[in-house]
Amino acid sequence: MLAxxxxxxxxxxxxxxxxxxxxxxxxxxxxDGDRIELYSRNRKPLGRYFPELSTPLQRALPERCIVDxxxxxxxxxxxxxxFDALLQRIHPAESRINRLAAETPAEFVAFDLLAKGxxxxxxxxxxxxxxxxxxxxxxxxxxxxxxSSTDRMQAEEWFDAFEGAGLDGVIAKPVxxxxxxxxxxxxxxxxxxxxxxxxxxxxxxxxGNGVGSLLLGLCTTExxxxxxxxxxxxxxxxxxxxxxxxxxxxxxDALIDHPWADWAKLQAERDGNxxxxxxxxxxxxSRWSASKNLSFVPIRMGLVAEVTFGQLExxxxxxxxxxxxxxxxxxxxxxxxxxxDVAVPVRFSTLF
Length: 352
Fold this sequence. Notes:
Elements: E1 2-6, E2 16-21, E3 25-32, E4 35-39, H1 54-60, E5 64-72, H2 83-87, H3 94-103, E6 107-116, E7 119-120, H4 126-136, E8 143-145, H5 152-161, E9 169-174, E10 184-190, E11 193-204, E12 211-219, E13 225-231, H6 236-246, H7 261-271, E14 281-282, E15 295-298, E16 304-309, E17 311-313, E18 316-318, E19 322-326
Parallel strand pairs: 1-10, 6-8
Antiparallel strand pairs: 2-9, 3-4, 3-5, 5-6, 6-7, 9-10, 11-12, 11-15, 11-16, 12-13, 14-15, 16-19, 17-18
């Protein structure tokens, strides 16, 4: 089951079952005796990446069952969830996986029961499945049962309080709803904030036509501009419009007083490209893929964009960042981290 995005809790008393929206890897667990299989919602196997979950899942789950849930990694500093540590687990080297499994062990949070024994439960109402799940799970140090409530006030409290633990928001599930695989039958209510960010450059769309993403920067109190992510997901028409707007800001002088000029020059030397007008730069440390091409087209400093974002984690925006409008009244130097409204860290253990 998938969820549609909303900005507030859906109306209707006693019609919804509310749960915190976990920010991890969606995972379906299949157990048949000693055999445990973990799959993503796209049916990609996950078990090899999280070997530390096999034994706890055997202790926690019924002998034969299918359970829907989320794999998360708690932050070692007791600051909620660590999504970066979770991403690092998807790696081809078994030795690396085993090391990280010991250093930053994952946990499984169960939130739905799809089958138990010979009984399929997908046609049962949500409240029925929830009751069966509660009766079927033996929680331990690696397997948890997600909090759940039909109380709207409780849901609103979770929405505000749990954000500091790295949770996305709240999921609303119709209490009488069955399990509709692949359909957006749920509602997810997420936090949305805005920020004014400097735009030091852009990337061309992967099809080679127009702007694929705008690079975003914020200044520290010391005046250093750091990369905080990108704004992307533009329509074909919008990509062409952005290219028309940004192209006049490129050229041989684009790197004069540019905060990321050193990166641009380093990448130019690496590529054997000395034409200043064709310089590209590489931002170090992609949070998503070490092999991802991070080159960008630098532009003359001066442009500022207002964007929407959900969370700031590790000094970067998480999830989809949306472009709102240009801010000609702002200067890049005025775009600082201290403008951001961020959540107070919450311990992972308090979520249960």
